[in-house]
Design a protein that fits this description.
- The chain is mainly α.
- The protein has twelve helices and no strands.
- It is globular.
- The protein starts with a helix and ends with a helix.
Length: 309
């Protein structure tokens, strides 16, 4: 564990240093931050709030499948507590806090939580892949590298679809990747039997994908004097969301920024503005997370202690 913490600190330090160097070479973009209007800032925070709210609705729908009824305080609060925990504890500690709460408060087994979490990732990437295909396929103002983008998104959708259609699949091995995939497939095998639930989860996931795209569009728009193509920015937001697969730094700091900057450069928006937009979104995200996160942590902790009495 000590080695993992050391590597965590080193990785975070490297990303901070790289971002600092990039910002020093893009000082003109920093000036745009001062020009962000209050309306744009409030709109961005509102989109992030709605993003977490739909994550909460998704959690509520999954919990109901296991005959667990979450109160509004729980399904709305747990996403903020999770996000806050991912920032202050290494390797997605927020997810562990969520799993612990559900175990202690509702006797929801850890193994079931992990499997359902993995299944929700499969649904997310499938929906994001479909959204990517639709956006690239639109006939007007196609982004650069349309062929490569279409191939990538089709590959994502076909890979997940093929795994989903196989009745039972087990990845051999006891390594972390194999165990995670097998847990995800177990969760998917359970969820796919309930078509109404699957449709509801897909719709909630689509809402989070769209809200993430809107947040990126607001951030990019606030940093540019000229209107930027929503299609390209939406695709950038999808690529950025794939960073949840790489959990190395607190809140995936640096990973998301790197993917956003790289995809922004590839799609012709500019790596510099992509980095700045990603940092603006992160700053806007921290506001509700570290305001509502502690509040809901207190309320849900009191819920636990009260339940023990």
């Amino acid at each position: 564990m000590k080695k993992r913490r050391i590597w965590l600190i080193i990785a975070t330090g490297v990303f901070v240093a790289v971002i600092a160097v990039c910002l020093a070479s893009q000082r003109h973009l920093i000036e745009y931050i001062r020009q962000i209007s209050p309306v744009a800032a409030v709109s961005l925070v509102a989109a992030i709030l709605l993003f977490h709210a739909f994550n909460g609705l998704l959690l509520r729908a999954v919990a109901a499948k296991f005959n667990i009824t979450l109160t509004a305080k729980e399904w709305l609060g747990l996403p903020f507590v999770t996000a806050m925990g991912n920032y202050i504890t290494p390797f997605s500690g927020g997810m562990l806090a969520r799993a612990s709460y559900l175990k202690l408060r509702h006797s929801f087994p850890y193994a079931k939580f992990i499997s359902v979490l993995g299944a929700s990732y499969l649904i997310y990437f499938w929906v994001a892949g479909i959204a990517g295909i639709v956006v690239v396929a639109l006939p007007f103002e196609r982004p650069g590298h349309s062929g490569e983008l279409m191939l990538f998104f089709v590959g994502v959708v076909l890979t997940i679809s093929s795994c989903a259609l196989i009745p039972t699949i087990k990845i051999p091995g006891n390594n972390r990747v194999a165990l995670s995939l097998n847990s995800a497939f177990d969760g998917w095998a359970f969820i796919r039997k309930d078509l109404p639930l699957l449709i509801r989860l897909a719709l909630y996931t689509l809402a989070t994908v769209l809200l993430n795209g809107i947040a990126f569009w607001l951030a990019f728009g606030a940093l540019s004097d000229e209107p930027l193509p929503f299609r390209s920015i939406f695709l950038i937001s999808i690529f950025s969301s794939f960073s949840i697969l790489i959990k190395v730094t607190p809140g995936n700091f640096g990973i998301s920024e790197a993917i956003t900057a790289l995809s922004s450069g590839i799609l012709g928006i500019g790596a510099g503005i992509g980095l700045m937009a990603s940092l603006v979104i992160r700053a806007a995200s921290l506001i509700p997370i570290f305001i509502l996160g502690p509040i809901f942590s207190f309320l849900l902790t009191r819920e636990l202690t009260g339940n023990k009495k």
